[in-house]
Design a protein that fits this description.
Length: 261
């Protein structure tokens, strides 16, 4: 019997950066709970964005935000993994060597931006629903860093190749779509966060179902026997998953979940 369902958001439940979920998702989550199945949202987005997207059910679900660096439940933080300050600062300085790149400094309490790009700020606030706090210089922040998200409108993997090569052995580096490269503490990933939830609830891998589309979803899929890649997923993700669902734009995840009711 399935007891735990885990799903990525962008590229899996919705197109990348979409602020809106199909309202039917909320009804299905509640019906799954009635049947004894817990629901986990596992996203690269910060906690404020995840809570906003799932507002109608936010106190009924677990959420894994910032690619596993933040775990919340019933509207409160359970734990957060932060980066060493010195490492975070070295990554930030490296990113600043690339004028075509932008970045967001995710803390426990907010998402800090020192970019002068008002359009980017507006998109993050109204599109992704980030809790954006504009500052003069993120290097002056005292708040511990949960994640550094490097942004480019397209081609992020190629644009950050030298950054990845320099820090891949010191930090967890993962592409989240074609626009974001996320940098976190070394051992942080969605899979580790899901395992923590499984252990706390006494739920086995064989009782877990998961859905994803990007490289940052692979560890999460490995924590579930019923692992699904949506049809639009990267090839590496399709190979990692045991099963395939229809694409995000065709409601692939919803189709599978309805079959559990």
């Amino acid at each position: 019997m399935i007891k735990l369902i885990v799903s990525d958001v962008d590229g899996t439940l919705v197109p990348d950066g979409s602020p809106d979920l199909d309202p039917e998702v909320f009804d299905i989550i509640l019906k799954l709970r009635e049947k004894g199945m817990q629901f986990v949202v596992a996203s690269g987005r910060p906690w404020a964005s995840v809570e906003s997207a799932f507002e109608p059910v936010k106190k009924k679900i677990f959420y894994v935000a910032n690619n596993g660096a933040y775990v919340g439940c019933h509207g409160r933080c359970l734990y957060a993994y932060t980066m060493e300050r010195e490492l975070a600062h070295r990554i930030i300085r490296k990113v600043r060597m690339h004028p075509e790149l932008e970045m967001v400094y995710a803390g426990v309490n907010g998402d800090y931006l020192d970019s002068k790009d008002d359009t980017l700020c507006d998109w993050l606030t109204n599109g992704y629903k980030f809790n954006v706090i504009r500052v003069k210089d993120v290097l002056e922040l005292e708040e511990p860093c949960v994640k550094i998200s490097i942004y480019k409108k397209e081609g992020i993997e190629a644009a950050t190749r030298d950054i990845y090569d320099e820090f891949k052995d010191q930090a967890k580096m993962a592409c989240a779509g074609d626009m974001w490269m996320d940098c976190m503490a070394k051992d942080v990933n969605k899979g580790k966060a899901v395992r923590t939830i499984q252990e706390s609830l006494g739920i086995k891998m064989e009782e877990t179902m998961a859905f994803g589309d990007q490289l940052n979803d692979i560890e999460m899929l490995n924590q579930a026997y019923y692992s699904f890649a949506v049809a639009n997923a990267r090839e590496e993700v399709r190979k990692a998953a045991r099963f395939q669902a229809d694409s995000n734009v065709r409601g692939g995840v919803l189709k599978i979940l309805k079959g559990l009711l």
